[in-house]
Amino acid sequence: MAGKFVGAALVAAGLMAGAGQVAAQAQEEKVLNIYNWSDYIADDTVKNFEKETGIKVRYDLFDNNEILNSKLAAGKSGYDVVVPTAQWARLQIDGKLLRKLDKSKLSNLKNMDPAIQAKLAGIDPNNEYLVDWLWGYTTVGINVNKVKAALGGMPMPDNAWDLIFNPKYAAKLKSCGVSFLDSPSEVLPAALLYLGKPAYSKNAADYAEAGKLLQAIRPNVTLFSSSGYINDMANGAVCVALGWSGDINIARQRAIDAKNGNVIEVLVPKTSAALVFDTMAIPADAPHPNNAHLWINYIMRPEVHASLTNKVFYANPNAASLKFVRKDIADNKTVFLSDADKQRMAAPEAVPADIRRNITRIYTKFKTGL
Ligand code: N2P
């Protein structure tokens, strides 16, 4: 990390010399520190960027927003690009933890789908801080044959959420493995939606009800995981998961590649589910903001954005990329939701601090089973 301080010193020297921002940028060391979700990038994305720019990328992984947020809140993370989910990014903007984008350096913004930019503007007015990386939704994934077998003669429920939230089903599925995302801010919105409440309710009574629901199904949960569950699904150790759409499709692909007979499927709830927009942002104290802009602009190239979707089965926000997305993926309605499905899903919304504390408290009680 010594490089970080050298870079900061160079920037400071450039400004002191009165050379202005341009010279300071020219002197930025050729390093870029990225903090992104696991299983969320193509094999050649970093390599091609490094080759083209001569910038050395350090690429670290996380698997929930709580971890990323605590790093940013502590400050001096050393990261130049981070990928918070939109409603968390809103809190980080409010906390002055992120830096405004310099759109003059982002010529590829023209490639972005105006509908997605408009949706994100609900969180980040005028799209000043955030550029969408990929998007998906939080949902239920199943191992088709194992679930059928565990349910015995019971037919599949019409509402996919019943599999994990209704003890009638969950108690049977426990025998083949039930996994939940290990993140308060993912589990509570799903539980609220199951109860017919708003995913981002501001009402404490709704959370109390969700807490009761979670307590009731706790004995049936066999795993808490936000990344390892992909392989557990693929190899048959888990038969039903509260997970993210793309991750479950990755599990499906891994099972196909392994020819292990596990048939994994992403269910699209007929009721509602939380849409997930993960966004590229630059921390306020990023040591290499110019390199960060180069990276963000590179990702927005149509071929690059398409290659992410082709590898990890999350939809991308890049209208110009669609012709480079593999046809079977572009046509896959569990990846690019139909308009009708999208309409029913819950758009991101930030919740106030007291509700967030409540969410953490209820989740901790749920997970520890106390
Ligand atoms: C990547 C998960 C990203 C979706 N594995 C949740 N933000």
Q: Care to describe what's here?
A:
This protein has 370 residues and is an alpha/beta fold. The protein contains 18 helices and eleven strands. Strands 5, 6, 7, 8, 9 and 10 form a six-stranded mixed sheet that branches. Helix 3 links the parallel strand 1 (31-37) and strand 2 (56-62). The longest helix has 16 residues, at 353-368.
Brief rundown of the structure:
The chain has 370 residues and is of the alpha/beta class. The protein has helices at 2-16, 20-26, 45-53, 65-74, 86-94, 114-121, 144-151, 162-165, 167-173, 184-194, 204-217, 229-234, 245-258, 289-299, 302-312, 327-330, 339-344, 353-368, and strands spanning 31-37, 56-62, 81-82, 98-99, 131-143, 178-180, 223-224, 240-244, 264-267, 275-280, 282-283. Bound molecules: pentane-1,5-diamine.
